[in-house]
Amino acid sequence: MELTTKLEQLKNLFAEMDRALIAYSGGIDSTLVAKVAYDVLGERALAVTAESPSLLPEDLEDARIQAAEIGIAHEVVQTHEMENPNYTANPVNRCYFCKSELHNTLKPLALERGYPYVVDGVNADDLSDYRPGIQAAKERGACSPLAEVGITKLEVRELARLLGLPWWDKPAQPCLSSRFPYGEEITVAKLESLGPAPQPDAR
Fold first, then answer.
1. 3-state SS class at 135
2. What is the pLDDT of residues 173-193, one digit of tens each?
3. CA distance 91 to 184
4. Number of Cβ within a 10 Å radius of residue 20
5. Buried (b) or exposed (e) across 93-119, using 16+ Cβ within 10 A?
6. Is the pTM of this model over 0.90?
7. What are the pLDDT digits (tens) for 49-85?
8. CA-CA distance, 69 to 175, in Å (whole number)?
9. φ and ψ at residue 202, rounded to 5 degrees
C-alpha cells in the first residue's frame, strides 16, 4: 500500500474520533500521531506527556517544543509508577506496570475533559516485539492508529519527513529505566544519576 494511502487512512481514523487525547512522549511515533491528529481535529486534539523520574528533563522540554511547533494543545501530568514495587523490582514485564499507570492516569483525564479516545504511538512493527506495555494500554481501551493502518517504524519516519517535521530522524529515546538490567531494582536516585544516552556517531 502506498504511503499516501496510509496517511489518508490515518486521517480518516481521526476524523471518525471527533475528539482525541494523545499519549505523547515526544518520540517520533507519538509526535507523528500528534501532528496528524492536530491537522484533522485542530483544537479537538490534546497531547499529554507523563512526567516521572524515568523521563529526562531534556526529553520533556523537547516534547514541549515539538508540540508548540505543531500547534497542538499540550499538557503535562505526573505519573507515579515509582510507587509501585512491581515496577521498581524491574521484572521483564516492567513496561506493563508503567503503561498501566500511564493509562490509569490518562483515561480518567480524557473522560473528564470529554475526549472519548486515548491514542498512543504504537506502530505496526511494535506488535511483533515483546511489548507488555501494549497489553496494558489495550486493557485500558487505548487506540493505536499507526498499528491499525499498518504503518511501520520506517514509514513513521518517512511520513514525518513528508509532513515537514524537523524531528523525522530523531533517535529513539527509551525511558531511563530501560538502561538497567532486568532484576536490578530501580530507584529515583539511580535514575537521577543518569544523563542522556550517547548517540551514534553521525559521520
1. helix
2. 888 999 999 999 999 999 999
3. 8
4. 26
5. bbbbbbbbbbbebbbeebeeeebebbb
6. yes
7. 999 999 999 999 999 999 999 999 999 999 999 999 9
8. 23
9. -85, -5
